[in-house]
Specification:
Layout: H1 14-39, H2 47-73, H3 91-102, H4 106-109, H5 112-125
Length: 132
């Protein structure tokens, strides 16, 4: 694979990268504690503790290094951006864009969901029961 070529994977969110960095650091911390317990003769360390410590260290270090590289390179989606690099739109802006494509703003506001909502409201108002 060529160096610097985009692999085509989706960029993770900034919060996801930070959480992965914290989780990786925590796994390395757990590995350190397990290794300390294994080395303490009074605790009676078992061989599975050493195996778990090695596994936690490998996974935690890998996760922390991967997340750190993403943060340093800036290869993540920042808050308020879309994955394709543009800014996010609110519902009102997307409705205005849809209405602008038809030439009217009313076209964006009249949807089948709005008709169903009006029917439900009318049914609830005229259910025939006198609750007073």
């Amino acid at each position: 694979m060529e160096k610097g070529k985009d692999r085509g994977g989706a960029k993770p969110l900034q919060a996801t990268v930070v959480i992965r960095l914290i989780a990786g650091g925590y796994l390395v911390y757990l590995a350190h504690d397990l290794f300390k317990i294994y080395l303490n003769p009074a605790e009676g360390g078992k061989i599975y503790q050493l195996g778990c410590a090695a596994f936690f260290f490998a996974v935690g270090a890998g996760l922390a290094v991967w997340s750190g590289m993403k943060l340093i390179k800036g290869d993540y989606v920042k808050n308020g951006e879309r994955a394709d690099g543009g800014e996010t739109q609110t519902d009102e802006e997307s409705a205005e864009d849809a209405g602008a494509a038809d030439g009217t703003k009313e076209a964006a506001e009249e949807t089948p969901e709005a008709d169903d909502t009006e029917k439900i409201i009318n049914i609830q108002e005229d259910d025939g029961n006198d609750r007073s």
